[in-house]
């Protein structure tokens, strides 16, 4: 359809409805570039992911691997900070996010796809009440009177386990603890009944006992509302707790993906194995932890071929050649490595 | 011999600033005692606001306690002052959490690392100081060729190695490690934990390890003190704490650890934290405790002979 740009918002809305059977958030071959000392270099390289309603997908990796850039690109955030798409596409139920107008994007953000950030301390505006911040989101996306929006805000806060919701609406963020603020942010994310939630390290800044309860809350809402949840994290414990599927990123690439059971029982990529092995929770006290030699190469200094080759115990000469994303495939389990053999 | 001993420490912070009139004084550390020998690691665990970092600063004598004593190698430092105290500070050194904030970005690495020598080894020439820095960096797994560079040229893990070298250069007997690996990635964390173990063995150092991460503590600690609301609620050997803890709070903290495998989802018999906040009278943990009884309202929080501050310990 040549006149795609000219179609009205309401048409896109209805076309989103029409394609509801194929509901899916899909990232295909996405590469993102950033500017480092005046040069554009790729920080995310040909990433493909697929998230369906009712599923929880974990995107795991260490800092600098590109997991947050990838997640932010879904809402086309980061573009103001100089992150550019160099190739690939992201589509919501078959509609490319890169073909959408600003107005259409505004409806998608929060309306269809909502985001929960890591820092509950900075994600709320300190000079507005909790109530005004939640009702703002509600009225932006739903056609509601102030009174209806207020009632919905109360319901949302009750949904996230805040009993004295009416009181909390009148309070300012500074009177809430970190765990309570994260609940408020989750309530805000749910405000317009989105289909997908992107949660970027949603529990990292919280105390461990609070973490547990936030995880339970997120999973509960995800199931009740049949949400597709993309969990961005460095923490395999959180993945074990929450996810159906996992994708492991290293230096801008997805190196391995599969179901959570498959990845935990038969991790195949040498990086996944090493990363899971150096966790102190699976160590023997008194013994040295296994380590990964060397450091993650920054964007722009990725080696040709396999990005992990220089640190890899299994690397051979052919690892300097380009390595396809799906060298090794067994059902849902896909591994980017020439030398895994049969991991089971 | 005890390299670090604290007894009966109390510290209260007055409400400050704009809200002085309406604020409430906060009892950050209440009647805290422990003893740390050479070659040993004592971990202090707790949530934010539990008093663990204040305890670390009291042990360093960066803060003066309201009451109680701090002994470095048997000497009461709360009685020392001025020059004598400054000279004794080489006994105990600190490694901070954030390797990005704890190094001066305008100082070359060697200048940052050598700072302690200016106070504690004024006799050294510049050349001698540089040699000492190179030697200490090597001990921390860093090549001396980087010593004329600036902090921004190093990764987080390398900066934490620099932070450790900076503490070690004055040859302390005790290191206070305040969340030394919690800002690091898992793979880097493993490298730093191994390094700390190696250095401890080589130098027979005593470690006071402050952390909220029980998996890290299980890996590195010989003994553990669990703090809640400024008080030690349970202390014991790492094996005892992790295998058979007695305090409901310790149990809840252990149960709140992330699982290690998806098969562990929906574990049974978990001890959960039921409420929020803390009580000002009686046992401070009452509002969150699933096992509280009437007598807890009058409990003074004293540790029993087994090292547990609870009237109804779980393993009895």
UniProtKB/TrEMBL annotation, chain A:
Organism domain of life: Bacteria
Occurrences of domain ABC transporter (ranges): 25-276
Annotated Gene Ontology cellular component terms: plasma membrane
Membrane topology: Peripheral membrane protein
Pfam family, one: oligo_HPY
Gene3D superfamilies on file: P-loop containing nucleotide triphosphate hydrolases
InterPro entries (UniProt xref): AAA+_ATPase, ABC_Ni/Peptide_Import, ABC_transporter-like_ATP-bd, ABC_transporter-like_CS, Oligopep_ABC_C, P-loop_NTPase
Name of the molecule in the record: Peptide/nickel transport system ATP-binding protein
Gene Ontology biological process terms in this record: peptide transport; transmembrane transport
PROSITE patterns membership: ABC_TRANSPORTER_1 (PS00211), ABC_TRANSPORTER_2 (PS50893)
TrEMBL record, chain B:
Protein's name according to its UniProt entry: Oligopeptide transport system ATP-binding protein
InterPro entries for the chain: AAA+_ATPase, ABC_transp_ATP-bind, ABC_transporter-like_ATP-bd, ABC_transporter-like_CS, Oligopep_ABC_C, P-loop_NTPase
Entry keyword ATP-binding: yes
Database matches in NCBIfam families: oligo_HPY
GO biological process: peptide transport; transmembrane transport
Alphabetized UniProt keyword annotations: ATP-binding, Nucleotide-binding, Transport
Recorded superkingdom: Bacteria
Organism: Mariprofundus micogutta
Keyword Amino-acid biosynthesis (UniProt): no
Domain ABC transporter: 4-254
Entry GO MF terms: ATP binding; ATP hydrolysis activity
Family designation: Belongs to the ABC transporter superfamily.
